[in-house]
Amino acid sequence: MVKIEPFAVEQWMDRYETVATYNIAETCCDSISLTDLSLLSSSDSGEDKFQESLNKLLKRTLGYGHIRGSPEFRENVTKLYSSSSLMGKLPVDNVLITPGAIAANFLLLYTLVGPGDHVICMYPTYQQLYAVPESLGAEVELWKLKEENGFTADLDELEKLIRPANEDGTGGTKLIIINNPNNPIGNFLPSEALHKIVNLAKISGNIPILSDEVYRPLFHSLDTSTHPPSIIDIYDHGIATGSMSKAFSLAGLRVGWVAARQHGVIDACASARDYNTISVSQLDDTMATYALSPNIVSKILERNVALCNTNLKILDDFITRVPEISDGKFNASYIKPTAGTTAFVKFESKDGEIVDDKRFCEELLERKGIMFLPGGVCFGHGEEFVGYFRIGYCCGTQVLKAGLKGVREFLKGEF
Ligand SMILES: Cc1ncc(COP(=O)(O)O)c(C=O)c1O
Fold first, then answer.
1. Nearest-CA neighbor of 98 among 354, 272, 323?
2. Taking every annotated instance into account, which residue ranges of this chain make up the domain Aminotransferase class I/classII large (predicted)?
3. Which of 15, 20, 186, 275 is deepest in the core (most CB within 10 A)?
4. How far is the CA of 326 from the centre of ligand 1 (A)?
């Protein structure tokens, strides 16, 4: 039997997210309904494209549909990547649709990693990215983003971790895993760092790089023209995973994807996927195709980038005022997010004592109905990140405001 660590973050979410009154731990940009989606389409031409998609769906027989995902959906996914990169436009067949990025990551790891393989994974990140390869018998080394470096990537450190292959091509690092933008830190790897990582992977024998890009393109601190590239637009052994959940506010459509320049990777994943998926729901596929159609996707992203920026100002104001708000009882510090939907905040008592994140979260929920995520429980390996909290600040602005008001009262001891 495969042994795998409990997935702490998902278990915490499962236990508390439906009972919390103010969920400010969630990582999706405030989710939208199909009605919201339909309203985005009262388009310039006056044509109701949403109704058109819906009508087609109502008439379609509900067989399995396209096994790898409909060509229309996959085509729209290819448009999320650059067509002007040296590698050209991504072919439709280089995209495989999966039930969420979580299934895309799992499938890739299951396909690419085996017992004894050396795998490097950026840390902190979504636990799946290092726990699954560990469960498959790989030797996983964590490439740590360190607080003292502002949680930025240390390329010298990565270089030390990479094992070059032997002359016969065996024995080297099998896979490098990054998460860009990063959950929980809320930062991203800038273009220069990405190119350096690719260079290290190339000179060490074209090591594949799996980049979990589920928060892409939420680079809300940047202009669109300065977004860093996807891994698959700068490296032909790069593999990207993504989904409708975070940047597109549609996690309830359980669809995501694997995109890769090497067609063999897609075929290998498709072959493994035959054993556990067959196809995704045609309803999900159709609605996701619609949401990623050119006019609509730009409206969703415009809404969500504005939401991230508005809410980040509110959060930032709160964080800087924690000593005042708590009558001097607490300090809070963080690296202000530049991308994604999460902030990783450290709370300390006024005399520098670490806060028990688990107890704090449980009490906050019990007394005020507010949900934070305890960093030590959900992102820590051993004692790491005790006293940290992941805040998902891209929920509805009113939820964030009301939630932070409750936290303020909690910090003052007003229950
Ligand atoms: C980094 C990362 N990858 C993947 C996922 C899974 O997302 P989904 O399966 O909804 O696409 C999450 C969800 O929180 C995540 O944070």
1. 272
2. 60-397
3. 186
4. 33
Nearest CA to ligand 1 atom 6: 102
Band (pLDDT 50/70/90 cuts) for residue 165 is confident
- Rounded to an integer, the average pLDDT of 50-59 is 92
Question: Concatenated DSSP letters for 180-225?
Answer: SS-TTT-----HHHHHHHHHHHHHTT---EEEE-TTTT--TTS-GG
Asked if 8-33+300-412 and 59-293 have one fold, the answer is no
Average pLDDT over every residue of 173-189: 98
Atom 14 of ligand 1: nearest residue by CA position = 27
What would the CATH number be for the domain defined by 59-293? 3.40.640.10
Out of 9, 17, 214, 239, mutate this one to test ligand 1's pocket (max ligand atoms within 8 Å of CB): namely: 214
- The DSSP call for residue 354 is B
Query: Which atom of ligand 1 is nearest the CA belonging to 256?
Result: 11
| Cα 380 from chain centroid (whole Å) | 17
The whole-chain average pLDDT of the chain stands at 95
pLDDT of residue 46: 47
In this structure, the residues whose C-beta lies within 6 A of any atom of ligand 1 are 27, 100-102, 126, 179, 183, 212, 214, 243, 245, 251, 256
Q: Ligand 1 mean position to 342 CA, how many Å?
A: 12
Q: Which of 29, 102, 108, 216 to mutate to test the pocket of ligand 1 (most atoms within 8 A of CB)?
A: 102
Give how far the C-alpha of residue 87 lies from the chain's centroid of Cα atoms, to the nearest Å: 25
Q: Give the pLDDT band of residue 167 (cuts 50, 70, 90).
A: confident
* Assigned fold of 8-33+300-412: Aspartate Aminotransferase, domain 1 (3.90.1150)
Q: Is it the case that residue 280 has pLDDT exceeding 70?
A: yes
Which amino acid is located at 154 in the chain?
D
